[in-house]
UniProtKB/TrEMBL annotation:
It comes from the Bacteria. This is Protein-export protein SecB. The keyword Mitochondrion does not apply. It comes from Pseudomonas knackmussii (strain DSM 6978 / CCUG 54928 / LMG 23759 / B13). Pfam families: SecB (PF02556). Keywords: Chaperone, Cytoplasm, Protein transport, Translocation, Transport. The gene is secB. It is found in: Cytoplasm.
Amino acid sequence: MTEQASNVANEQENAPQFSLQRIYVRDLSFEAPKAPEIFRQEWQPSISMDLNTRQKQLDGDFYEVVLTVSVTVKNKEETAFIVEVQQAGIFLISGLDASSMSHTLGAFCPNILFPYARETLDSLVVRGSFPALMLSPVNFDALYAQEIARMQASGEIPSVQ
C-alpha cells in the first residue's frame, strides 16, 4: 500500500498545474491631443488596434505575462485619442512540455487577460468623454498559430514534422 501511495503522490506532483496568482495593470496611458476641439466635430471614428504579448519567468514555476493593447482612434484625419494598457498577470504553471508551455504563455494567458484590458480601456475612454470603446473579442489561439507558422516559414523555429 505504501508503494501505491508513493506512486499516486509522484503522479500528482508531476501533473500539469495552472493557477492564476494575480492580475494587475502594469502601465496605462491616455492621450487626447486635439481636445477640446475634437468634441465640436461630427463623430466619424476609425479605429486601429495593436496587440502584443510578452512573458518572462519569475521564480521557479511563476511567470509574468503582459498583454499590451494599443488603440488609436481618428476622427476623419485627426487623432481623437490614443489609449494603451499593459494588462499583466502572474501565473503558476508547471508540468507542461515545451510546446504546451509555449501555447499556454502565448495564447491561454492572454485570453484570460484580454477582458480585463478591454474593460480598463473602455473605462478610460469614457472618462476622457468619448463614446464607449467596445473592443471585439480576440482569438489568441489563431494569432498564436499564425505567429508559429510565420516563425517556421522564416526559419526562426524548426518545422514540426
